[in-house]
Amino acid sequence: MANKRKLGLFSAVIMGLGGAIGFEIFVLLNYAYFDLAGPSMISALLFCGIINLVTMLSYSELSAALPEVGGEYTYTKVAFGGIISFMAGCLRWLASVFVGALAAVVFVDQLGVLFSVFAPSIQDLVLANVSVLIIGLVVILIVLAIRGAKEATTLIVAAFLAIFIIFLFTSIGYTLTPQNIVPEVSPNSLIVFFATTAYIFPMFVGMRALVAGAPQIKNPGKNVPRALMITTILLTVVYFGVAYVAVGVVPFDMLRTAGDPPLLNLAASIIMGPVGAILFALAGIIASVSSVGTAMSVQSSILGGMSRDGYLPNVLQKIHKRFGTRYVAIIASSLFVIFFGTSGAVEFLVYAASFGSLLVFALVNLSLIQLRRKMPRLDRPFKAPLYPLTPLAGIVMSVLLLTFPVILRDVNAESALFSSLGMVAIVLVTYYLRMVKREIDFNRLRVAVGGICFGAGITLIVLTPIIAPLSLFSIMILVGLVSIIAGMLNIVASARKID
Amino acid sequence: MEKRRILSAIFGIAQGIIGVLSGVLAVLLFLNILELQTVFNAPPELLPLYLLILGLFSIFSVISGFFLIREWRV
C-alpha cells in the first residue's frame, strides 16, 4: 500500500475541490435565491460552510485513524458493523443516484442556456426534448464508464477556479449593494433560512471525495485533516464571493419566465456580456457531465463493495472481460439516474440528494463517538477538538436541517422525505432478508408482513364504498381481496413454525 | 399441500403485480404523467401522503408476494 501513496497536500486539496466544485452551484444558488431565501441565502452559504467544517473534523479524525478504501462505509463498519454500515452504504448510493439525476437535468438546462446566446430556436428544441437528451447523455456515459474512461478532475477544477476568479475580478467595476443578506429574526424567515441551508448543502458534500482518496495520500494522518480544513475554507470563500456578486447584480424581484437562465448565468451575462454567458454555460455543461460520470462510478463502486460483503446479489460484481469494469453495477445504477433525471422534478431531487448526504454525515459523527468508546487505544494522528461537542453538534445540525424544508410544508421536500424513508424501509427489509438466516426470524417476519397485508386489505375494502369513485370500485375491492387472501396464506404458512 | 402451493403461486404473482403497479401509479401520480392528478382529482398538498400510502402498500405487497412465490418455488 505504501508505494501507492504518491499525492501531497496540494493534490489532496485539489481532490477535495474537484469533488465539491461542480454543477450544484448553478442549480442550487438559483433555487435558493429566487424561490427560497432571497439575498439572505449568502448567509445560509456561510452557515453551510460552518456545518461542513464541524463534520469535516469528524471525517478528519476517522480518515486519519482508518485511512483505508471505503470512506463512510468503512468508518461505520468498524464502529458498528452490520446494519449501520449497510445503511450508510445505501444512503451514500441513494444520494449519489439523486445527485447524478440532478446533474443530468442541469446538463440539459445549461445546454439550453448555451444555445439561447446564439441560436434561440435550438434552445426551444433542447427544452422540448429534455428526456431524450438525458437518456442520450447517460447512455454515452455508460459506454465510457464500462470502457473505464478516466476523468480530468484537476483540469476541470483549474478551469472552474479560473472562471470564478475572472468573474469576481470583472465585477470590481460594479457597485454591488445586495440588500438583506442577513435573515430577519422571525420564526418564518429563520425556518426559510435553515431550509435554504439544507437545500444548498450538496454544494459542499462532494469534498468528501478527499476522504475516499485518502489511501493515495502521503502521510494521511497530517495531510488529510489539513486538506479537509483548507478545502472547506477555500470553498466557503469562493462560494461566498460568487454568490455575493451574483446577488449584487441580479435584482431579487426581477420578473422571470420559463427558459430564463439560472442566477449564475444571468449574473455572468450581465457582468461579462455574451462571452460570460457562453463561458458559464460551457462550465455548467462540463461540470454536469463530469458529475453524472462521477455519480455513476461512485454508485457502481458502492454496489460492487456491498455485493462483495454479501449484502447484495453477486451479479453486481461481474467484471467486463475486456475493460475490467463492473458493467452490471454501472448499468443498474444508470437506470435509476435515467428514471429520476427524466422526471425533471428539480426541487424533489435537490432535497432527496441532501437527505442521503445529511444522514450519512450524522452516521459518520455517530461512528466517531462509538469508536472513541469502543477502541480508545486506536492510533489517532488527528483528534477532533472539543469532543464530544463537535460530533454531537454535527449530528444535531444534520438531523435538524432535514426537518426544516418539511416544516416549511414544501410539497417536494415532503415527497422526497417520504420516498427516501420508503427506500430506507426497503433497505432494512433487504438487510433482514439477506443477513438473518435463522428460520424462526424469517417466519416472524413473514407473519408480520402477512398481518400488514391482511389489515391493509380489510381497510381497503371498508374504505372503498366511502372514498372510491364508481369506476375504480371493482378494482379496489379485487386488490383488497387479493391482499387479504395473500396475507392469510403468509400467516397460516409461518405461524405454526414459530413455536 | 399441492393445492396450497398453487394458491400461493396465484396469489403471490397477483400480489407482486399489484405491488409493482401501485409503485408505478405512485410515481405517475406524483409526476402528473398522463394528467393523473386531474384524473384522480388529487389536491397537490395531499400528494406526499398519497405517495407514502401507495409506496408502503407497494413495498409490502411485493414482499408478501415474494414470500408466497418463494413457497411455491421451494
Mean pLDDT of chain A, to the nearest integer, reads 79
Please give the number of β-strands of chain B: 0
Helical fraction of chain B equals over 70%
Which runs of chain A of at least 5 residues are low in confidence (pLDDT < 50)? none
Would you report the number of β strands of chain A? 0
Determine the N-to-C terminus distance of chain B: 13 Å
SS-derived structural category of chain A: mainly alpha
Query: How many angstroms separate the termini of chain A?
Result: 52 Å
The shape of chain B, in one word, is: elongated
- Count of separate structural domains of chain A: 2
Q: What value does the Rg of chain B take, in angstroms?
A: 15 Å
The arrangement of helices and strands of chain B along the chain is HHH
Which topology of the largest domain in chain A does CATH recognise? Amino acid/polyamine transporter I
CATH class of the largest domain in chain A: Mainly Alpha
CATH architecture of the largest domain in chain A: Up-down Bundle
Report strand % of chain B: under 5%
Explain the overall architecture.
The complex is a heterodimer of chains A (499) and B (74). With 499 residues, chain A is mainly α. Chain A has helices at residues 9-20, 24-36, 41-65, 72-79, 82-118, 120-128, 130-146, 153-170, 187-200, 202-205, 209-212, 220-249, 263-308, 327-343, 346-374, 389-407, 411-435, 439-467, 470-498. Chain A folds into two domains: 2-435, Amino acid/polyamine transporter I (Up-down Bundle), CATH 1.20.1740.10; 440-498. Chain A is built from 19 helices and no strands. Chain B contains three helices and no strands. In chain B, α1 packs antiparallel against α3 (47-73).
